[in-house]
Known about the structure:
The chain is α/β, with parallel strands linked by helices. It is built from 6 helices and 4 strands, in the order E-H-H-E-H-E-E-H-H-H.
Amino acid sequence: MxxxxxxxxxxxxxxxxxxxxxxxxxxxxxxxVRNITLPTNKKNFSNRIKNILAxxxxxxxxxxxxxxxxxxxxxxxxCSTDVLCFDLSGGGRFIADIVISxxxxxxxxxxxxxxxxxxxxxxxxxxILHLLGFKDRNKKERIRMQRKAVSILNKIHx
Length: 158
């Protein structure tokens, strides 16, 4: 898997090796899932993970202004957000971008009494879950995704 990391901000230090470890760790943990509700059947989910592992992922760290511009440009929402995902796959090859707002990570770290880097890592896993087909369109889905992301991040750090 090719993982590209682009840092366009100065709020949170970006450790490229740690980010790659989190991406690969999350995919490894998800490849062994047994008892969670998957967005598709187990075979399709496993194939999606294999496609991701054979593809390219770019992780882009930006400020609120940039993510707000992207959010409006692609989703027509006039607000900043914590993470955006773009599946750009085509021709049988997986290619995707995950865009993370480090300003939002700082804001939320104060709100939830966590570290900004931990929040950014959580957003990264949240993005991976989206790329695997998980949705967060309603409160129930958002809670399920949040719990799964926290669980994965805790496993990676243990």
